[in-house]
Design a protein that fits this description.
This protein is an alpha+beta fold and 81 residues long. It has one domain: 2-Layer Sandwich (Mth169, Chain: A). Helix content is 35%, strand content 30%. The chain is built from 2 helices and 3 strands. The protein has a 3-stranded antiparallel sheet, covered by helices on one side. The radius of gyration is 16 Å and the shape is elongated.
Length: 81
């Protein structure tokens, strides 16, 4: 089973890299871009893991290792059964 975990800053946290990318897009003429938030993507492949076990382990791993829960949030999905 493979899962994809997306980590982003919480809405209340300033994202200077996202602002820089948005400014660059505006400079290149993409004025309709309203906001850009940058993040991290983790793809983790498990061997012999049930969906139920993944639903317990993935949030635990994200909280303990992959995110700073004070300033970041995450979402995840199974991308390969």
């Amino acid at each position: 089973m493979k899962v994809r975990i997306l980590v982003t800053f919480k809405d209340s946290v300033l994202d200077p890299q996202g602002q820089t990318v948005m400014n660059a897009l505006h400079t290149l003429g993409y004025e309709s871009v309203r906001d850009v938030r940058q993040g991290k993507v983790f793809e983790i492949e498990f061997a012999g893991l049930s969906r139920e076990k993944a639903e317990r382990l993935v949030p635990e791993m994200a909280d303990r290792v992959l995110t700073n829960p004070i300033i970041e949030t995450f979402s995840w999905q199974i991308v390969e059964p």
